[in-house]
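Record 1 of the preview.
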Amino acid sequence: MSNKINIGVVGAGIYGHYHINTYTTDNNVNKVVFCDTNEERLQATEKEYNIKGYPSVKEMIKNEELDAVSIATPDPYHYEPMKDAILGGIKNILVEKPLATTVEEAEELIKLAKDNNVRVAVDFHKRWDPAYLAIKKDIENNKDKIVRGYMALDDIIDVPLKWFNWTEKSSPAWFLGVHCYDLIRFITESEVKRVYAVGNKQVLVNKDCNTYDSMQAILEMEDGSNWTVENSWILPNSFPKSNDGQLIIISEKGYYKNESYRGLNQYNQDKASVPNYLFMNFTDRDASGFGVQPMKDFVTAVINNTQFIADAFDGIQATRVAEAVHRSILTKEVISL
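->
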């Protein structure tokens, strides 16, 4: 492979634009194309970035010589485009979390990728957050042992009500929780052993949106640590950010606490805001921040044929936990993985 690659982006929605922005400013990328089933969005994206768009994954692959495909479709729509990319001969795929919204689909995709010698990366960008990396490094350097952990990720209510038209096919666990489950696995270097969860359906259902408002899970890890994970979609829109997050860890030797506020506050006549300047930043020449770093590292790993930081195994493990969380809520039982 040359020192530059050609890459195709699947989906030109919110995250699709993040992918396109990142790759079009990456000096290691020779060419960027994309596909989207929405004709209006396809034409607008072509015009905005001056790149070629296609109406389907199959047509994009057929007409382009691609080294990699980057899948940025919504949560419940990763299976089909990923399958099309694998069967179309693509050998390197980055897919947004979750890998799939059922274990059955995830297992099928992994088998298909293995049978076709395809490498798969999953975008769990929390692994690149400098705060979490610092915590992980300190725990490792001190040869410390985690006793208890707490993690929460919550979105304002406009996210499920106005940002998507597929909310009922997802949940706070699929959209937010998988980030938590993966980060906990990453920090502890351990797997989830048992899950117990509860959930609420009231606020969104009353707004004709049949999905969970909030989901809470207790995870028992193989290393002996226990974690509480909380995710919701109903923060008031007056909240200064579109989301909120917290991580608290009690270990045998220390205590760690991180919140999503990054020390910058802005005010206008209507609302206070807390910009997450560490997450994503775009200029005409560059994309930076831990939210885009997984995409940049994916490109580098494809060129150098090196290991992905989060791969298909990490993807299916997070899917297993999310599926267990849903099952525990419905059965009111502890689920063993």
